Amino acid sequence: MTAPSAPQILIVDDARDVREPLGLYLRKRGFRTRLAANAAEARRIMAEAVIHLAVVDIMMPGESGLNLCHDLTREGGTPVILLTALTEQADRINGLDIGADDYVTKPFDPRELVSRIQAVLRRVPASQPQPSTLRRRFATFVHDPLRELLLTDQGQEIELTSGENRLLGALLDHPGETLSRMHLMDLIRGREARAYDRAVDNLISRLRRKIGDDARETRLIVTEWGGGYRMAATVEELR
After folding, report:
1. From the UniProt annotation, which stretches of this protein bind DNA (predicted)?
2. Which of 41, 118, 129, 163 could form a disulfide with 97, with the two C-beta atoms 3.0–4.6 Å apart?
3. Does residue 130 form part of some domain?
4. What gap in Å lies between CA 97 and CA 73, rounded to an integer?
5. What CA–CA distance (Å, rounded) separates 201 from 203?
């Protein structure tokens, strides 16, 4: 019998022959499970139950697994493992950028998925760091984290991905302080993600391009070789 205190896993997959056998397999391995055939069902379950981790198929009718992943990781910090097809490499990268913790490629060995679930759950801290929701000015930009936007002094709006938004917020939380890749991953995801620490470098590169910080004479986000990254600009909170 599964213990009431066991982690509860949400499986979101439109294929019954995937979600039901997987749910049974996880229960036999000591997990509690909830099953959803689409994103709408998953949202209803999330509203009524405590979910410790979600296993989400990317390709589903209606709302995509990527969109659901974005909302789960942004709103509640729920860890997500994506189920992807071999042909969905770009979607896997996008999923990691928006906050997914890992992915497993179909067809998969359920024993591998259990190992991935256990690894992610071990990395989840008891409490999640709460990112700032304040608008802040740095250099010639204003960061609006709630709208996931950068506003320039000329009135231009620059859209940020969720990953870019969280990363910039973390840098602005610690102006002048060198933050290692792993520290940044802890801050922006609320849990370690050692297998994907290079994702920070990719996010930094994209963020630099958006703020024009990739020219040699401009350095707002400074690379500290062997150390990490540092926000070199003065940061001002706006009320």
Report:
1. 131-233
2. 163
3. no
4. 11
5. 5
Residues 158 and 80 in one domain: no
Q: 1 vs 170, which has greater pLDDT?
A: 170
At 141 the three-state DSSP class reads: strand
Asked if residue 109 and residue 34 are part of one domain, the reply reads yes
Residue 18, domain CATH: 3.40.50.2300
Domain assignment of residue 27, yes or no: yes
β-strands 141-144, 149-152 pairing: antiparallel
Cα gap 169→166, rounded to integer Å: 5
Per-residue CA distances from 189 to 173, 198, 233 (Å): 15, 14, 23
Sheet holding 8-12, edge to edge: 32-36, 8-12, 53-57, 80-84, 102-105
**Pick from 182, 105, 173: nearest CA to 143:** 173
Give the pLDDT confidence of 53-90 residue by residue, as tens digits. Answer: 999 999 898 898 988 988 887 755 788 999 988 666 77
* Structural domain for 92, as ranges: 8-123
On the question of pLDDT at 132 being above 70, the answer is yes
- Kind of pairing between the strands at 135-138 and 141-144: antiparallel
Q: Any long-range contacts for 175-180 (C-beta under 8 Å, 24+ apart)?
A: 175/138, 175/231, 175/233, 175/234, 175/235, 176/230, 176/231, 176/232, 177/230, 177/231, 178/224, 178/227, 178/228, 178/229, 178/230, 179/228, 179/229, 179/230, 180/227, 180/228
Q: What pLDDT band is residue 17 in, cutting at 50, 70 and 90?
A: very high
Q: State the number of CA atoms in the 13 A half-sphere of 7 facing the CB.
A: 19
pLDDT at residue 183 tops 90? no
Q: What is the DSSP-derived secondary structure letter of residue 2?
A: -
